[in-house]
Write a structure and sequence with these properties.
Elements: H1 20-24, E1 31-36, H2 43-53, E2 58-64, H3 66-71, H4 83-91, E3 98-102, H5 108-114, E4 118-122, H6 133-138, E5 142-146, H7 154-166
Parallel strand pairs: 1-2, 1-4, 2-3, 4-5
Pfam families: CTP_transf_like (PF01467)
Protein name: D-glycero-beta-D-manno-heptose 1-phosphate adenylyltransferase
EC number: 2.7.7.70
Length: 168
Amino acid sequence: MQNPYSTPQFESKVCPPEQLAERLGQLPRPLVFTNGCFDILHRGHVTYLAQAAALGASLIVAINTDASVKRQGKGDDRPINPQDNRAAVLAALESVALVTWFDDDTPAALIEAVKPDVLVKGGDWPVDKIVGAAETLARGGEVHSIPFLFSTSTTATLNKIRESAGGA
């Protein structure tokens, strides 16, 4: 009898960077790549990721490590969710094919390792400011800045929580 409490299948979509080369060859192309903290997943994130996934056959999401998030200056308590939890939640999304991570301040080296066919960031990033855009375009790939459909942000959510807690 199969154990009904076995590890969920989505956990297999979490891929350490050192295994990325091997795993990339198993994914259908075109490969779409995006990155971010994805600290507290919200409607804006999941909409954006579904739109990004629609631009190719496999969406690869690279998240900042906890140390990389801290260096971004988003607050001493960020990330709220540790890297392993953020990776697992993203992997559970149908639109996501693979989740990996990077510890640098930018994903430039990881983008060059993946060599995506399509590079995507959210609408707050103009194409000419997206890390890896020039290299992706030079390889004949596409770069997209997807406009936000919903006015949501992790920082705004945390500010609302903090304000509510202060008034209690």
